[in-house]
Specification:
Blueprint: E1 11-15, H1 19-30, E2 34-38, H2 42-50, E3 54-55, E4 67-72, H3 85-93, E5 97-98, H4 100-107, E6 121-126, H5 131-144, E7 149-153, E8 170-174, H6 177-182, E9 190-193, H7 201-204, H8 207-219, E10 225-229, H9 233-242, E11 251-255, E12 265-270, E13 273-278, E14 281-287, H10 296-312, H11 317-325, E15 335-340, E16 343-347, H12 354-362, E17 367-371, E18 390-396, H13 400-405, E19 412-416, H14 418-428, E20 434-437, H15 450-465
Parallel strand pairs: 1-2, 1-4, 2-3, 4-5, 6-8, 6-9, 7-8, 9-10, 10-11, 11-12, 16-20, 17-18, 17-20, 18-19
Antiparallel strand pairs: 12-13, 13-14, 15-16
């Protein structure tokens, strides 16, 4: 773990005792702080008590006596739609509020680094879609190139669960808007912005607040290099704010819509061909079309972002290209789980919003589409231009009938359950079709999370095709 530094002997309250909260308790204790724990769920409190931590009800009078910091888990609202009562109380008392990411950045560097030949570095990746794939892909590229590396944050393990840095190590952190918005310290060496599309708007008070939460990663810490997707207005604005002009190669612009030749440093991937440009000259190229773990333009954008970050870390094009070819893909993200009689089965349960589902649909030409769930704010209008390859939609979820009515122009079948949807898609699919789970909706009407939904899809597919 990463012991938290600078809080020795001080009482620190931890609110929310999931993965990151428990890791924060342990790291605070290891660093000499006096952590106290609270969670609204009795089971979570019991887990903390079983590890020997003091549980303190933060809603009671006197609970805040001596508390010098509140560490909140990312899933707990601190501003919109309304702050959790414990956070509101902390703010009213003037107690600073932080999260595990802020604690990580204040504690990661140590005096031991003075003896290293190469200083450890941190790459932080944020964005609406693709940040998990970009983070995992960069981690894979680094490992394949022989660089010591760890992966954490919004993916895999909590940041404070990481091991202390080794000589020359690169830590890759996937960071959500919930994490970047609250962290009091954000100082990555390289920061990556993949893209922006509407999501979590209730939590951030609208699109402007959502973008502002992402932007903090770049504005607060001033990374040495920024890799920025510029296919949306927000990305172009961010790149413009970070650079002194088009020739400033501290910003690596990324696009899958246009070739970016007129900038100091850029990476673009059009029609499956990745090209890296520096100061008006193409310096590297890579054919992404045959990379099985990265299908479609959205994954080519992820590959371009990971390429830019790897190049900023000093890796050579040949090493990166070789590693891309062996990338297996992430579960629930364009994951090819089976194939039979010319029909492929792809699990993209992580496509929980309209934009990510549209990108998944564009990756294939003949789709048997399993969709539906808890519809997000904004409706399904953004999907309609991208349904040309859909042969039929098999709609799941508690409100499947309403979801189906909002998909004009394509055959639909209201299935309700995953089992029925997979059964019907398997029965009707022909050679050359792709049975694609890309729900364009949240999972909470039927599942605990998108992972459980994806696992159910995989289980139903294997049940029917072996």
């Amino acid at each position: 773990m990463i012991p938290v530094r600078g809080l020795e002997g001080r009482v620190v309250a931890v609110l929310g005792l999931g993965r990151s909260g428990l890791a924060a308790l342990r790291a605070l204790g290891a660093g000499g702080a006096r952590p106290v724990a609270w969670d609204d769920a009795e089971r979570a409190r019991a887990a903390a008590e079983a590890e020997g931590f003091e549980v303190r009800d933060l809603s009671r009078e006197g609970a805040w006596e001596g508390v010098s910091l509140l560490v909140a888990s990312p899933g707990i609202p601190h501003l919109y739609p309304q702050p959790h009562p414990a956070i509101a109380r902390a703010l009213g008392l003037g107690v600073p509020v932080d999260n595990d990411i802020g604690l990580f950045f204040r504690s990661f560097a140590t005096a031991e680094w003075d003896a290293f030949e190469s200083r450890p570095r941190v790459v932080a990746v944020t964005g609406s879609n693709g940040k998990s794939t970009t983070s995992a892909l960069l981690h894979h590229v680094l490992a394949e190139a022989g660089r010591p590396t760890q992966l954490a944050g919004n993916i895999g393990r909590g940041a404070l669960d990481l091991e202390p840095a080794r000589d020359g190590e690169v830590v890759v952190l996937e960071l959500s808007s919930y994490q970047t918005e609250l962290a009091r310290a954000l100082t990555p060496d390289v920061a990556v912005f993949t893209n922006l599309s509407p999501d979590h708007l209730d939590r951030h008070g609208g699109m402007g607040g959502y973008f502002a939460a992402k932007r903090r990663l770049f504005a607060e810490g001033g990374p040495d290099r920024a890799v920025v997707g510029v296919d949306e207005a927000e990305g172009r604005f961010l790149a413009g704010q970070l650079s002194e002009g088009p020739g400033d190669d501290r910003v690596i612009r990324v696009s899958v819509q246009e070739r970016l030749e007129g900038f100091g440093w850029s990476v673009s991937a059009r029609k499956g061909w990745l090209a890296e440009w520096r100061h008006g000259r193409q310096v590297a190229a890579c054919d992404l079309r045959g990379v099985a773990g990265l299908p479609g333009a959205h994954n080519h954008q992820n590959a371009s972002a990971a390429w830019g970050a790897a190049r900023a870390l000093g890796l050579g094009p040949r090493a990166i290209e070789a590693a891309l070819g062996s990338y297996p893909g992430l579960p629930h993200r364009s994951q090819r789980v089976a194939e039979r009689d010319g029909v492929a089965f792809v699990n993209d349960s992580k496509a929980t919003n309209v934009d990510s589902a549209a990108k998944a649909l564009q990756a294939f030409s003949r789709v048997r589409w399993i969709c539906g769930g808890l519809e997000k704010e904004g409706g399904l209008g953004g999907l309609l231009p991208h349904l040309g390859g859909v042969r039929k939609a098999y709609v799941i979820g508690r409100e499947a009938e309403g979801f189906a009515r909002r998909l004009p122009g394509i055959p639909t079948e209201v299935c309700g359950t995953m089992a029925r949807a997979v059964e019907r898609a398997v029965a009707e699919a022909e050679s050359g079709d792709v049975v694609l789970l890309a729900p364009a909706a949240a999972s909470f009407d039927q599942y605990d999370n998108f992972e459980r939904r994806g696992e159910d899809f995989v289980a139903e597919v294997r049940k029917r095709i072996g």
